[in-house]
Specification:
The complex is a heterodimer of chains A (about 280) and B (about 550).
Chain A (H helix, E strand, L loop, with lengths): L1 H9 L1 H23 L32 H37 L1 H16 L2 H11 L4 H28 L2 H8 L4 H9 L4 H24 L10 H8 L8 H28 L1 H4 L4
Helix pairs in contact in A: 1-11, 2-3, 2-11, 3-4, 3-6, 3-9, 4-6, 5-6, 6-9, 7-8, 9-10, 9-11, 10-11
Chain B lengths: L7 E11 L8 E11 L3 E5 L6 H9 L7 E9 L2 E2 L5 H7 L4 E4 L3 H4 L6 H11 L5 H14 L5 H5 L8 H13 L5 E5 L7 H18 L2 E6 L2 H7 L2 E6 L2 E7 H6 L4 H9 L19 E12 L9 E13 L4 E5 L6 H8 L7 E6 L2 E2 L5 H7 L3 E4 L13 H11 L4 H14 L16 H13 L5 E5 L7 H18 L2 E6 L2 H7 L2 E6 L2 E7 H6 L4 H8 L4 H14 L1
Parallel strand pairs in B: 3-8, 3-9, 6-7, 7-8, 13-18, 13-19, 16-17, 17-18
Antiparallel strand pairs in B: 1-2, 1-4, 4-5, 9-10, 11-12, 11-14, 14-15, 19-20
Helix pairs in contact in B: 4-5, 5-7, 7-8, 11-17, 14-15, 14-16, 15-16, 16-17
Classes of the chains: A mainly alpha (about 280), B alpha/beta (about 550).
């Protein structure tokens, strides 16, 4: 573990990313304490520019709602959607990829054609359709994002399993009479963990972007303040009130950047042989 | 051989090469001094990690990024190679110093025709007109003994065999008539018969051209075949140098003695076997396995390889049966068919009355308990993310043994294979290759098998470790009354451990007999070639004869 942390630390960008993400998480958790009032509540005159009043440092929006408060609550939504949809996508993708890679043959063909079916449909379009069919709420958004983002997981896991499948310790496990399920679960999957973790960190970032895009189009959960919704609502007034789309945009940028930096750092730390030249 | 008087061509003085921090020792090469004279073959011998390749790489300026020389000089033609600017060094490489590598497949560019690769050497040094380069390439291929050199020149590397590829490498190295040839384990990846041919070729070319050859190897048999002088390396230091006769026949240093003593001796034991009339515990009848690869998009035709053809075998209780053959002879496929890691196409594998070849599902899972395998690669055969205890206990637990009992048993087994019981809580990467192989043996024994199949189980190990593992296997076999099938390409190992030997060629068993009969009076022509190709054999026979007349 200490070794892992040392390698992670060597990538300065990753440490910056970690600090940024920690900040976002802290804001999300502390949002109800920092802003006891609902972010939907009108608190001042509309179109209050940033830094004009000390109580509302980022100004107010078209209806006089506190932008800073919206950002804090939006962090909750973004992180929740990012994490939960990634976990859901992993739960779909890992079993499919593992079975396809381990059993090969017909099982592989069937599962991979199924995966490709999802891959050939443009993911954002599919997500819009799914959210539109079910009514837009946080569950359907998370579900839609998970459904469009599991195919890369399945492909990655399949590739890893294929290469592990012929290792001698897997053959030894077969000879010792372990069942296929036990071999996949205890011998194969633990060894695919590093690339999955790296991919997952990047998937959280993609999921946050997807959620923002859906909310921007008005397909977000109407009861939750999210960054995408804030930008979408402000797009008509972008020339009068630049701050309404600028600050949520920065929030998305920094969060996604942080996750990407962390993903890269994890990659360096988990695959030390690829990261360092020489030796 | 009488080179003692000539001036050294290349001198290494007190060379010291530092390893990056955190390596297992501070210097890869520590205070090494060597002289290489014109017209001699100097063998640098050592086990893996002894720094023998590092010294050669330093000469060519091929050291890895984080490894650098910190002291000493490498003098060639009045200049220190370590201080020479890259442009000067580039000029020397190929023209004066040439190198051949271990793996002929990865040392050649797979997308370039052979003639172009050889011509490139001339091009790099601005020699010859383009048309003359191709002609010279063909002449060189002819010189290194490739049949139909014109055709081979137009071939791509994948169309040539391993031995031919190594010959192409040698042709490239010789293209500009270098004064020094560095050969880094050039025959290690080759079959024994091919190895003998390549060694012969290097010796002939060296004598013809009066080159100096620095030959790096781990194999004392090869040393006996080819060396004029020998330098033995251990952990970055040279522990002994001398003429080949002196070092091999009268080693002074303890480490050299230990290494030479660890080489498996060719004289097979006179153990009688055949189970003394007992029925065989494993009987293989007419086993066949054919591989079919689907034809590509354009070739259309599928490739069919008969890996195992009509093999009949019997294994008796308490016996060690060797299956020897060169790569591609089907010996590993046969082993895999026996344990059903591969399903045979036809034939029967009778184990205690059951036909293993026909079993499936749960019955197969149960039957497999009796026949276990030890694998070749001690690094790939243990799950890197599982603790040793779990690795060993998993098998018995899968067959219903309670967890506590299985772990207790794992401790006993570790003790049995000569490891400390505390190993149970550690991960595989904390162990050396030999120790890992012991863990693999303990895992195989955990299910109390009656038959062990060892697939090249000692091939990846250094010779001294190899001897220890072979001793362990022989000891366990006796104590646990196991029957052992030992699959190997190394006839020396087979001679040491096997009671009976089956020789495989092209998927078929061409000869079976007691180890002594196979080595002393081989009946089959192929068996004879195999045995004659064993490096160091003549020297050993001569020594044995001398010993007998003296005794």
């Amino acid at each position: 573990m200490a070794d892992f942390w040392n390698r992670f630390k060597r990538n300065r960008g990753a440490v910056i990313g970690l600090v940024l993400l920690a900040l976002v998480i802290a804001i999300a958790i502390l949002a109800p304490l920092l802003f006891p009032q609902s972010p939907w509540r009108m608190v001042q005159r509309p179109f209050l520019p940033p830094f004009a009043m000390e109580a509302f440092p980022l100004g107010t929006d078209t209806l006089g709602r506190n932008v800073l408060s919206g950002l804090a609550y939006g962090a909750q939504v973004s992180l929740l959607v990012g994490l939960v949809s990634t976990v859901a996508a992993l739960l779909i993708g890992i079993p499919i990829g593992a079975m396809a890679g381990y059993f090969g043959g017909v099982a592989d063909d069937v599962l991979m054609r199924f995966t490709e079916f999802f891959q050939t449909v443009p993911s954002f379009a599919l997500a819009i359709v799914l959210v539109a069919i079910f009514e837009p709420n946080i569950k359907s958004i998370i579900g839609a994002i998970a459904i469009v983002s599991w195919p890369p997981v399945a492909r990655l896991v399949r590739g890893e399993v294929l290469s592990l499948r012929s290792r001698e310790y897997i053959e030894a496990a077969i000879l010792s009479g372990q069942t296929s399920a036990a071999i996949i679960w205890r011998q194969v999957l633990p060894n695919t963990l590093s690339p999955i973790i790296v991919l997952a960190s990047l998937m959280v970032a993609t999921a946050i972007l997807l959620e923002s895009s859906l909310s921007f189009l008005g397909l977000g959960d109407p009861n939750l303040m999210s960054w995408g919704y804030m930008i979408g609502a402000a797009r008509t007034v972008i020339r009068q009130a630049w701050w309404l789309s600028f600050f949520p945009g920065i929030a998305i940028l920094l969060t996604v950047l942080a996750l990407n930096l962390i993903g890269e750092g994890l990659n360096d730390a988990l695959n030390p042989r690829l990261a360092r030249r020489g030796k | 051989m009488s080179t003692a008087m000539t001036e050294p061509l290349l001198t290494i003085e007190n060379l010291r090469i530092a390893l990056p921090e955190g390596a297992d020792r501070p210097y890869a090469v520590d205070d090494v001094s060597l002289e290489l004279r014109a017209g001699e073959i100097l063998c640098i011998v050592g086990e893996s990690g002894s720094g023998k390749s590092m010294a050669a790489n330093a000469m060519m300026g091929l050291l890895p990024d984080l490894v650098r020389p910190v002291a000493g000089r490498i003098l060639y033609d009045g200049a220190d190679l370590l201080l020479l600017p890259e442009t000067d060094l580039r000029d020397l490489r190929g023209r004066k110093l040439a190198m051949i590598f271990q793996e002929p497949m990865s040392a050649l560019n797979p997308l370039m025709r052979v003639e172009d690769q050889i011509a490139e050497v001339f091009e790099a040094h601005g020699r010859l007109a383009p048309r003359a380069r191709t002609a010279r390439a063909v002449a060189l291929l002819d010189e290194v003994g490739i049949p139909e050199p014109e055709k081979a020149a137009r071939a791509y590397p994948f169309q040539l065999s391993g031995g031919q590829r190594q010959r192409v490498m040698i042709a490239m190295a010789l293209a500009l008539e270098p004064e020094i040839l560095i050969a880094d384990e050039p025959t290690t990846a080759l079959d024994v018969t091919t190895q003998a041919q390549i060694l012969e070729l290097i010796r002939v070319l060296q004598a013809k051209r009066g080159m100096a050859v620095m030959f790096i190897t781990h194999d004392f048999g090869v040393v006996a075949e080819i060396a004029d002088r020998v330098a033995v390396m251990q952990e970055g230091r040279i522990v002994e140098t001398g003429t080949a006769e002196a070092v091999l026949d009268n080693p002074q240093h303890d480490y050299t003695r230990k290494l030479i003593a660890a080489i498996p001796k060719l004289a097979a034991g006179a153990k009688a076997s055949n189970g003394n009339g007992k029925p065989p515990i494993l009987q293989v009848i007419g086993l066949c396995k054919t591989f079919r690869s689907k034809g590509g998009l354009f070739s259309g035709r599928s490739r069919v390889v008969d890996a195992v053809r009509n093999v009949d075998l019997e294994l008796f209780e308490g016996e060690t049966l060797g299956i020897v053959g060169e790569s591609g002879s089907g010996k590993s496929s046969l082993g895999r068919c026996l344990v059903r890691l591969m399903a045979p196409d036809r034939g029967a594998v009778l184990l205690g009355g059951d036909d293993m070849a026909g079993l499936a599902g749960e019955t197969l899972r149960k039957a497999r308990k009796a026949i276990q395998m030890i694998f070749q690669d001690p690094y790939a055969s243990l799950n890197p993310r599982a603790r040793v205890g779990r690795i060993i206990a998993e098998g018995p637990m899968a067959h219903g043994m309670p967890r506590n009992e299985a772990y207790e048993r794992a401790g006993t087994l570790l003790d049995l294979v000569g490891l400390d019981a505390s190993a149970i809580d550690r991960f595989p990467h904390e162990f050396s290759g030999g120790q890992r192989q012991r863990i693999g043996i303990a895992r195989a024994l955990a299910l109390e098998p009656r038959i062990l199949i060892a697939d090249e189980a000692v091939s990846a190990l250094d010779v001294s470790i190899q001897a220890q593992v072979l001793d362990l296997l022989a000891d366990l076999k006796k104590r646990l009354d196991l029957a052992l099938i030992f699959i190997t390409h190394d006839l020396r190992v087979a001679a040491q451990i096997c009671d009976r030997i089956a020789v495989m060629q092209g998927g078929e068993i061409v000869e079976t007999g007691s180890a002594r009969a196979i080595f002393e009076s081989p009946q089959n022509a192929y068996t004879r070639t195999l045995i004659e190709a064993i490096p160091g054999r003549e020297k050993e026979l001569a020594a044995a004869a001398a010993g007998q007349t003296l005794g």
